[in-house]
Amino acid sequence: MTVNVEIDGEIAIVTIENPPVNALSGTVRQRLLALADALDGDPNVRAVVLTGAGKLFVAGADIAEFDRPPEPPFLPDVVARIEAAAKPWIAAIRGAALGGGLELALGCRFRVATASARFALPEINLGIIPGAGGTQRLPRVVGVTEAIRIVAENHSPDGREALRLGLVDTLVDEPLVPGAVAFARAVVGQALSPTSIERVVPAPAANVWTEAEARITASARGAAAPPQALQALKHGIEHGVEAGLALERSTFLALRATEEAAALRHLFFAERAALRPAELRALSPRPIETVGVVGGGTMGSGIAAALLNAGLSIVLIEQDEASVLRARSTLAGLFESSRRRGLMSDEVASEWMARLETSIGYGAAERCDLVIEAVFEDLAVKRSVFAELGRVCRPDAIHATNTSYIDPRLIADGLPGPERFLGLHFFSPAQVMKLLEIVPTPDTALDVLATGYDLARRLGKVPVRSGICDGFIGNRILRSYRTEAEALVCGGVDIAAVDAAMRAFGFAMGPFEMQDMAGLDIAYLYREAARARGMPVPDMPGDLLVRAGRKGQKTGGGWYDYAADDRRPKTSMDAQRIIAPLVGAKKEMAGEAIVSRLMATMAEEGHAILAEGIALGAADIDLVEVHGYGFPRKRGGPMFQAGRLGKT
Ligand code: COA
Question: Which residues does the UniProt record annotate as the domain 3-hydroxyacyl-CoA dehydrogenase C-terminal (predicted)?
Fold first, then answer.
């Protein structure tokens, strides 16, 4: 049964039971509509408590239905019917009331909740706006200013704040339902207060709208939904509820059908599936409390910060006092910059520094459940680290390498405990970037692999399993992308035109600006090494630039020139002269054509990666690109793009 009814004296208790998150699927909507009629007609019932079974009230509309045309009964009609009920409905909320769940609760005459319950309208994260009256009822209940934050800025109050805002009438302790029934008994017989939609809300001062518009447009960075959510809210305040509801619904339906919303839904499901791969569901991860990080450079310090952030105990292992001091100061710098930006309080920053343990030499690894190696990208150096760890660590401790290119089988070869060894490839800055490529070797035990996923979950990362190949999933696609971008330049397309096209598509930077920021030399050295091994790697424009000393921003120029202390790229006559021997006649190419060439290249490499079994699914490749390489979220990823193109 998706919606159950129980009668307790004169109170009906309606429980939505639609695991895992009580989404408002078609059957739930039908049943709620039918119940609203039936309970109105039942003379023994004087009030209705509406709640959700399990951990939460309702997580919203059933997102899986959004790929199909809407099916009646529509949620706005269900909410309106409950709101029009002759008897008071009382929403009893624990866990979360999200999206349509909050809209449903707003249709009830009263709301009671536990203090820890969360209230949110997260639709904008899915490229849509609330579609069942949320933009109209919420401001009438909590006022315009607070409603703007919740509807268009992802603010999500908990029960206590909701009580202060008037979103909740009273807080109740668990067990929730008896508390809600007692509340219902107390309101039976009282004159009914106005419904959410009937309430009158004062129009705000004009600057509230202009300031909110400016703020939301800036933070939306081109996303369609947040400004439109604000518009629907504003329209209802300025032109009345009917007009507001009509605009909200038409905007919702229009946005629901966009590519952007489909891309965001694709990522929503991919991100959830990524955390729980089917083959590992039955396995228990090993307990991890103390983690060693070997190497306190940029990567090691970033990893340490991510671990501290997740509340783990960590020991940062370095080889001498000077390196320990450097690592401590890198970490202190990271915390300080988070503190300055208001992302971290003074207390948290000092608590982290207090929790950070450093050690010279490997002795401390003895206490670690997991040790992550983040030293220089050199096979011999990495092997010597693991040889030491093999001597010191407990025989059940997990060993992970943060290599980005080296075959983990070579690193682990001949060392003790190959079944406890795996690759955990973090992305820089590791305390920020969400991607974690998990690279098992053929010897890695499944529970060790499961522990990698569990760690990712605890760190708030998106884990993607990668097979072993040069560059794993992400750097391999990056290489094709850059090579193709350089091929466009060799074909006469302007460097800045390529960058501009990719920025217009949604990347924060184009491929050449990005290389200038990261440095051209790593890819160059990589190609040189391949050439030294006798591989036929033709010269690329990037090689000529590096040989001429142009390694990117750090040398004052690469593909572009940079003025001192200014990261804005300027067209470089020098760079153009240097690469001229490899560049053909000038060619105009439309931005869209540039984007499709580069998308096609990424997808082609993605298909090869799939065919070789390096990635387990196309959605994983999209996650790698979105969470590790700045691929615009609203575009869903290269494989999503390829699928869309394939359908047209
Ligand atoms: N519609 C359909 N499926 C949903 C869903 C929704 N609104 N919300 C969650 N799910 C699914 C997830 O895909 C996942 O499925 P899986 O087990 O097959 O992978 C399952 O429910 C559990 O979700 P998950 O996110 O893994 O659990 P959680 O306990 O970490 O978080 C929520 C639960 C509700 C907080 C989280 O799922 C969430 O934020 N959901 C989206 C809410 C939303 O955006 N609502 C507005 C919709 S318009």
Answer: 471-562
